[in-house]
Amino acid sequence: MVTINSPGLWQRARVQAAIALIVSVAGVLVLAGPASAAPSDCALGYHCTYSGYDYGNDAWQQPSTHKFLNCADDMYIGWRSYKNVASSAFNNGRYQASYLYAGTYKTGRSISFPKGTGVPNLGTLSFNDNAESGYFDTTRSGSGSALCL
Amino acid sequence: MKHRCVCRRRWALLTLAVVLTAGAVGCTPAALQTGERVRNQALWTMPLDEFYVYSPELDNYAEQLQIAKCVRAQGRDWPVPWQNTDFPQAENVNTTGLRLFTLDIARQWGYRLAPPADPESARLWEEFATTADAFFPDAELDEILLHCTDEVRTVDAEFTTTFDGVNYLSGLALQAEEVVLQDPAVIEATAQWRDCLEPLVSFSLRSIRDPWTEMPPRSAATAWGATADGTGTPSAEEIAVAMADAECRDSSGLAGTKYERSWDEQQNLVDQNRDKLDRIREAAAERKAKLLTIVAENAPKAP
Predict the structure, then answer these.
(1) Is residue A2 part of a domain?
(2) How many Å is the Cα radius of gyration of chain A?
(3) What is the ipTM of this complex?
(4) pLDDT at A61
(5) Min CA distance, B24 vs chain A (Å)?
(6) A to B CB pairs, distance under 8 Å
(7) Do the domain assignments include residue A139?
(8) Could you tell me the pTM of the whole model?
(9) Most Cβ neighbours (<10 Å): which of A16, B107, B119, B201?
């Protein structure tokens, strides 16, 4: 449930939605190229998701940034759910591809990220506000799940 | 009163589990290894599957082998191991990486992922991950890895090709699924699934829109230990609930209705995007051949 109580935020939401739609309709796939800069708050080794586009966070959509070092079977941190809020994501891992799944526990469709790249608008992949679990390669096999958040 | 209710549920579940186990026929795990492009509900085959050529894990592996060569040239170790380049999926995952759920799967693994299809390959990669992670923090090695990654990607500027292609396929599949989840027949069948399963479980199903991605709820998964270790042996209760769930998805018509509607929606998208999909498949096939050559030239011998 997203609650928007500011006209300015409404306008921003509409603009972002329009951008997402245009890019999505155009079918443009936007993956960052080599040596693309990681978001400043996404440390080496982590996969980071953000509630806003371009690795930012939407003021009205909390909680915001979610990071995992190995995996997240169910995108919670403590009691807070981060499910279905990610609008952009970056794999700042050192040596593995990372994956986001539409369902918890590696269920549903997934999208993947080469290391050192991100997707600034998950809407281009029909994945906006859709991620519920995430993994690096190692933890996608069952035995890695003990390392999950 | 509540205690008696729970006992009744458990008896009902146990009875159902016995009946379902006794009635089990066919659908062996080996059957999950075959079949593409033809309708197969157990394997959840779909029209988009034919455009999925290989797992992007191969891209990462080939790149890591080249990075390892570069890192070694700088005097440091980066022990990328042998890997099975087929990257075979666990038995309850189809060839496109989608988790499957049937009565037979529920009986064997509950809601958990089956063990890796190639345990040795998985073990070696886990060992590499453990070794590599132990190197850090090491600012010098991080610098070398960044430099080597840039060097490899300067030569292989198309390193995202298959990731982009597979993500495009996933995006189309998600579009199809979103349409299917709003289909009145699917919504009605989901309501019937809830009516079938709810009397047998101790948690609410009211908020569940898609059992394939939302079962079991977090409270049940936590209680069964799924959050502590996704591959541990499922309890009798978890298996009984999973089997009842699978049976209800079938008896309510949900599994069949969702499968058929998904097939039709994906077929529409294939028809609308045929040219791009053909290009994705062709590019992936070319790239796979190139990557396998890189692996053959750089990978350690198989154990």
Answers:
(1) no
(2) 15
(3) 0.86
(4) 66
(5) 25
(6) 163
(7) yes
(8) 0.84
(9) B201
